[in-house]
Amino acid sequence: MLRMGKLTDYGIVLMSYLATESELKHSAHSLSDAVQMPLPTVRKVLKFLTHGGLLKSERGAHGGYTLHRSPKQISVADIITAIEGPIALTECNSSESHCEQESHCSIQVNSARINNAVYLALDEVKLSHMLLPQSGLETISPINFYPSATQMKTATDQDGDINE
Question: What three-state secondary structure class fits 11?
């Protein structure tokens, strides 16, 4: 089973809340109260999101956390990467692979294809999509899970694999 970690789930919740209240600066305490999460957890997630370049943090009496970019420019893939690191479904897709089978694995290229497909799908889901109400979703155009023309122009085809 593929599953995000709890911190990543919490990160998406926090980022969604920050996107709905983007005109304000939020303290860790106010965010903890607003999303009903323990303060230490909120602080930990905010640290990951800030280091990942998704949030701006200002210290002081008038400081707080705000989104670093528009919700239309932040993808679910960005949030996952900020908290869990690069998206890698298998060991061989990780930048720090320690797989004993890697030198003679016959499915490594196809595994990379799957990894790229999952990444591109997650990259298509923007934070702004997470703010849409559940009712009326049928009137909203579906999320395109295939590479856009722009992404395809920047991708190169090597050994049957799309690499960006």
Answer: helix
Architecture label for domain 6-85: Orthogonal Bundle (1.10)
Q: What is the pLDDT of residues 12-61, one digit of tens each?
A: 999 999 999 888 999 999 999 999 999 999 999 999 999 999 999 999 88
How many residues in total does the chain contain? 164
Would you say 43 and 52 are in contact if contact means Cβ atoms under 8 Å apart?
no
pTM value?
0.76
Spatial separation of the C-alpha atoms in residues 52 and 77, rounded to whole Å: 12
Which percentage of the chain shows pLDDT scores above 90?
47
Which amino acid appears at position 47 of this protein?
A: K
Instruction: Give me the mean pLDDT over the 74-93 stretch.
Output: 86
pLDDT (0 to 100) of residue 160: 46
**Can you give the residue ranges of every domain in the chain?**
6-85
Which tokens sit at 46? 């905010």
Structure tokens at 77: 């893939």
**Can you name the residues that pair with 22 across neighbouring β-strands?**
none
CB 19 within 8 A of CB 67: yes
DSSP symbols for 104-158: G-SSHHHHHHHHHHHHHHHHHSBGGGGGS-STTGGGSPPP--S--HHHHHH-EEE
